[in-house]
Amino acid sequence: MIYKPLSGAMWDPSVFYDDGVYYAIMMYNPNGSNTNPSLFTPCPDGLAASCGLIAVSDDGIHWRDGWTVTQEPFFADGGRYFKAFIAKIGDRFIMDHGVQQANGRQDILRFYESKNLHDWSPLFNSNPDPRWYEPSGRWDHMYMLPKNENDASAGYWGYPVATTKPVLPRAMGMMESVDGRDWTILPPPEVQWDDVPALDLEIGGCERMGDKYVIIGGQLHYLSTGYSMYTLISDNPCGPFRPDTEAFRLCGTSTTAGGWGVSFLAAWCRGKNGEKLISNYISVPSGTWMLPLRKAVFEDGHLRLGWWQENEKLKGMIIEPIIKDLTIGAEIEKSHIIEWLPCEFDLCKGVIIEGTICAHSNGIKSAAGFAFSENNEGVMEIRLGINVADECETHIGRWNVVTGFSSEDVTGKGCATVMGITNDATHHFRLLVRHDVFELYIDNMLVQTYVYRPHGGRIGLVACEANVVFNKIIAYAMSLQ
């Protein structure tokens, strides 16, 4: 939504911060296409990456192309540069990245070092230790975590994506290092899955939140058929980790949406002054894009994704005219109203719409939310359930006058993202829309990021079996330069 390279194709960025600057290291295919002429498929050319690309930002919001790094030495023979992480350790930067070989195996983890982020020297290649990991299994990108932020000599933990032995049905590994230049492979962190089926998680890192250690990892086909991120929590860096069942799905989609792109592997990021952030990206017909950084919110023992205050810098000029206050009444069962805002927005540039929403339920399927115009007079809607009994769901789907509403994405029980709004309470909303992606926050917490088929730039306000008051509505053009 906010950044992709000016040319070529990228995949799977990881963000890090050093000395006043944010950087993103990503898989990069200089000869690939980062758009797709088909309306029904994402843009996977970045998976054929030959090297890494570093993008640069002074604020974590406005990004520019930087430079390429570390060409995969066996690219000509079918090797591919896969996801990377970079950490500042002492006076140097340490990079690790995975490799996909011509035979499809991903059992090589390459390590490099640099003093300036431009010139990289190889350190060594790592392969799975057969005592705990499948020798031909996955041994891929590794997040590096200081053991003690106040004592560099304490060393570092590493959490690679791994394929453990069959008796350990989980996909995460563990390493440790004193200086980042030499790593020792450890047994995998213990996971006690309890009532949750063991998942082969693709790890996006482990971070310390207060006195807890929090792993995030992605997988298909659990709580959804789409790709989602999940959360494991422990008191100890080596485990036992357990699923946070109350808020297990950190983010993701309920369905692959007929081949549409979805948000993919999220990763931890340490920002300015050690602020804990989470980066994510999405692959859709308009391209493979970095999404805005999210603030990692850890309250009541649960990890959730919040609006990062620095993202306020995405707001550009105020767009006029727009309705500032509007009441919509859908007062009978099965009633549904869309009130379109009185202008079409330039979705190539993007728009941020803010305001407050207060809804009163009039039925068992009451909801309030937003609509987006699609081709052939179609409409995509995000419907926030209105909580009248301490339980509700948010649905995304398509509506038309003949068939009504068909849900294809659900945020509900077990999700860390916002499930709905409270009956008769006033909430703040923030809606970001650019190209074919929208992202919604309620009271500064993420609801969902999703994809639709834009036709024109109309955005509407929705009421379903509810009286809904929208106040203080204001729209901003996105400022991406």
What does this structure look like?
This protein is an all-beta fold and about 475 residues long. The chain has two domains: about 10-305, Tachylectin-2, Chain A (5 Propeller), CATH 2.115.10.20; about 315-480, Exo-inulinase, domain 1 (Jelly Rolls), CATH 2.60.120. It is built from no helices and 37 strands. The chain has strands at about 10-20, 20-30, 50-55, 65-70, 80-90, 90-100, 110-115, 120-125, 140-145, 155-160, 175, 185, 200-210, 210-220, 225-235, 240-245, 250, 265-270, 275-280, 280-285, 285-290, 295-300, 300-305, 315-320, 325-330, 335-340, 350-360, 365-375, 380-385, 395-400, 405-410, 420, 425-435, 435-440, 445-450, 455-465, 465-480. Strands 24, 25, 27, 33, 34, 35 and 37 form a seven-stranded antiparallel sheet that branches. A hairpin with a 7-residue loop joins strand 15 and strand 16 (about 240-245). The two termini are about 15 Å apart. The model has no long low-confidence stretch (mean pLDDT about 90).
Number of self-contained structural domains: 2
Q: Would you identify the CATH architecture of the largest domain?
A: 5 Propeller
- What fraction, in percent, of the residue positions are helical? under 10%
The number of distinct helices, counting runs of at least 4 residues, comes to 0
Q: What kind of oligomer do you see?
A: single chain
Q: Which structural class is indicated by helix and strand composition?
A: mainly beta
CATH superfamily of the largest domain: Glycosyl hydrolase domain, family 43
CATH overall fold name of the largest domain = Tachylectin-2, Chain A
- Please report the first level of CATH classification, the CATH class of the largest domain: Mainly Beta
What does the overall shape look like? globular
**If you average the pLDDT, what whole number results?**
91
Main beta sheet, described? Answer: 7 strands, antiparallel
Q: Count the strands? A: 37
Q: Tell me the β content.
A: over 45%
Radius of gyration, in angstroms, nearest whole number: 22 Å
Euclidean distance between termini CA atoms: 13 Å
Q: pLDDT below 50 for ≥5 consecutive residues: which ranges?
A: none
